[in-house]
Specification:
Length: 278
């Protein structure tokens, strides 16, 4: 699925043309959080289309990960609204918002190092494949049926990154790039509508990053979900994102297509600093 034309939705919100007749998967309105007297995120407004690959960029300390923590209810917003596929997430816990359809990865990889690759993915399948406590304890036929389903689904998801042959490896023994990919697979296992990727290319070499770009497109096309990513690798951001929002000091300073963002003087100043006058 190629990048589509950008379609105006509401004030300063953009989604791809192909999603214009679908309900946005994410609508943030006047979202913000204050820690004591410090305003970390303020008046954050963002709409993400149903199958959009969107980017959230900005200098270090701009508040990007704080936004992800708000979306996943690690932090409860001080003010503002978050709609997930039209549903208000106000008051939801992290687990509830995950079940509702938001999954994420982290800047610092958070895998269960001593569990196998497959076991890590199975943990993510808790939203889809269930077995009663009695069946599990007594190892009744329903338990083995559930285990078979989970095994097959885990291998299917791992095959996205050609990792099915690593299923029995300990997660902590994998190379860094493979651990990054495993974390994405585990997030996908929760069956999200919106996948949040926090610096997915961190620590990857150029060839791994190029492969990641193709896999992100593959994920969007295969699962027909939206992806919102934070990333400092501008080649990845500009090469894959359809709409980009730029955050600085907790506020959005620009939104637009990759071409518009690259040419925006406010964005350039935020990254490079204001040019001194002669």
């Amino acid at each position: 699925m190629d990048k589509g034309k950008i379609h105006e939705v509401i004030s300063e919100s953009i989604i791809p043309e192909r999603d214009k007749d679908k309900r946005p998967v994410l609508e943030c309105s006047h979202l913000g959080i204050t820690f004591g007297g410090l305003v970390a995120v303020d008046d954050f407004n963002l709409t993400v289309g149903a199958t959009e690959i969107a980017g959230l960029i900005g200098p270090n300390g701009a508040g990007k990960t704080t936004v992800f923590n708000l979306l996943t209810k690690v932090y409860q917003p001080t003010h503002g609204t978050i709609l997930l596929d039209g549903q208000d997430t106000r008051g939801m816990s992290t687990m509830q918002v995950n079940k509702a359809g938001i999954a994420r990865t982290f800047q610092n990889i958070r895998l269960f190092d001593k569990l196998t690759v497959e076991e890590n993915v199975k943990i993510g399948l808790h939203n889809q494949i269930k077995c009663s406590t009695v069946n599990s304890i007594l190892r009744l036929p329903a338990y083995w049926k559930t285990e078979k389903e989970a095994h097959e689904k885990a291998l299917e998801l791992l095959s996205i990154f050609d990792m099915q042959d690593m299923a029995d490896y300990k997660a902590g023994s994998l190379p860094y790039g493979a651990q990054r990919r495993l974390e994405i697979v585990r997030a996908l296992a929760t069956n999200p509508k919106l996948l949040l990727l926090d610096e997915p290319a961190a620590g990857m070499n150029p060839s791994e990053t190029a492969e990641l770009m193709e896999n992100i497109r593959k994920i969007r096309d295969t699962f027909q979900i939206a992806i919102l990513l934070i990333e400092h690798d501008m080649n990845l951001v500009m090469g894959i994102c359809e709409g980009i929002a730029v955050l600085n000091f907790g506020r959005i300073i620009a939104k637009g297509s990759p071409e518009e963002i690259q040419a925006n003087p406010t964005v350039i100043e935020a990254y490079l600093g204001k040019k001194k006058e002669d």
